[in-house]
Amino acid sequence: MFQNLQPPTVDAIIALMAKVNADERADKIDLSVGIYKDEEGRTPVMKAVSEAEDRLHASQDTKKYVGMTGDVEFNKEMTKLMLGADADLSLTGAAQAPGGSGALRLLSELVKTAKADATVWLSDPTWPNHHSLLGSGVGLAVEVYPYFDYDTQNVRFDDMCAALSKAKKDDVVVLHGCCHNPTGRDMSIEQWDTLGKFIAEKGLIPLIDFAYLGFGDGLDEDVLGMQALLKHIPTAMIAVSCSKNFGVYRDRVGCAIVVSDDAELAKVCQGHLGAIARRIYSMPPDHGAAVVRTILQDAELTKIWKEELTEMRGRVNGLREEFSAKLRELTGTNKWDFIANQRGMFTLLGLNDDEIAALRDDHAIYVVKGGRINVAGLQQSKIEKLAKALVEVTS
Ligand code: LMR
Questions:
Q1: CA-nearest residue, atom 4 of ligand 1
Q2: 150 alpha carbon to ligand 1 midpoint, in Å?
Q3: 65-297 under CATH 3.40.640.10, yes or no
Q4: pTM of the model
């Protein structure tokens, strides 16, 4: 049977990770996958996480099953991060999931269960894995809406609404909650608000993907756009990842949330999320979510975590400033100023395949197709080399 299989098409970002690892040049610069690194190029375990792990190790006396929707207290804490500490949790349903990707998959399976002919609308551009995770992998049709203007570096809001006006009732609109991947350009609060009214009028269902909560302008600030949209919407879905903001990438910590004005509907959806988990992997892994829950339910650990997150965000924004200032100095133009005022881990430099190949072959610099760079993976000491190489390959 398996003799008939052709090798799979490997996800572009994962394939690039392998190429970076295989490159033996000592001065290589890896700006591929979205991972936060410090000035030494390390991705250390966060202090709040280490402390929570110590506490868990000391107190955990069983490894028995937790349940199909995972850690109920973790789910509550994640929902409060999204909707506010005083949110009415009876209007929500949630399931712990293996990472943000797991949460996206649970929610797309929920859509498939409810309405198999719904179309999933993705931004153009978007994280490449959205297409298979939410579309082909689950058997839902995908359409794209324009999102980003490469010339002005702004959101194409009118074009986006024009495209979405072709969506049919119950189609799903996937939105990046903050720190749009790959562009680093988010909608304004006013645009979120306007989009909320538009989506509600058309009877569409938003699915808001939060992979970088806290990396934009702050934990509270980053959810304001979504909250402005939700005011208008009867039922919405949210996928949250803890990979980046808690630095628990390999522990796979995420949460799928359904928010509704109908408490019964929210609970039915939660039941389905559990049933879907059961038929795919039965139950999510406990450890990472237990760590996050331990942090969020302890004032001292929450304070430490928030300070660490603030420091990471500040460092990324500082790198943006320095990189764009260096490019201004080298080119004498403001062509690259946009790097400084985008948010999150990524910036899209708009490079063609030849320019990307030249960066790789001549300078050992790795960037994702289209020129997406992981600013959070950069070190100050490498900014000059990167800026010079970028100027060279684009001149
Ligand atoms: C990225 O876009 O680099 C991250 O979301 C990590 C991943 O799994 O692709």
A1: 34
A2: 21
A3: yes
A4: 0.96
